[in-house]
Amino acid sequence: DYSQMQQVFINIILNAETAMLEAGNGGTLTVTTQKVNNVVRASFADSGPGIAKENLNRIFDPFFTTKGVGKGTGLGLSVCHGIVAEHGGRIYARSRLGSGATFIVELPINAH
């Protein structure tokens, strides 16, 4: 559904904005889309500080956050993961600490 996917994309964008502001480098967010076979892929690549390797496998876990107390619930990416899964897709991230992060959302193209 449109509003749910909008929530996913807004959450990814706001997380990127927060990371880039905290890094203090102004930042760049590059959004790309492409069709690969029967899948549409949206990639969000930011120039923030990146995600530590030990955290990368946990970022979609409920209540996991690296933000300070009172600055995040740790639910945003977990909710995104659930919404994307409900739509038959997947969401994942690639990152290296110090080199930004890229979040990728892949959704099947349903012929109706």
UniProtKB/TrEMBL annotation:
Gene3D superfamilies: Histidine kinase-like ATPase, C-terminal domain. PROSITE patterns: HIS_KIN (PS50109). Residues 1-111 form the Histidine kinase domain. Keywords: ATP-binding, Kinase, Nucleotide-binding, Phosphoprotein, Transferase, Two-component regulatory system. The keyword tRNA-binding does not apply. InterPro entries: HATPase_C_sf, HATPase_dom, His_kinase_dom, Sig_transdc_His_kin-like_C. This is Histidine kinase domain-containing protein. It comes from marine sediment metagenome.
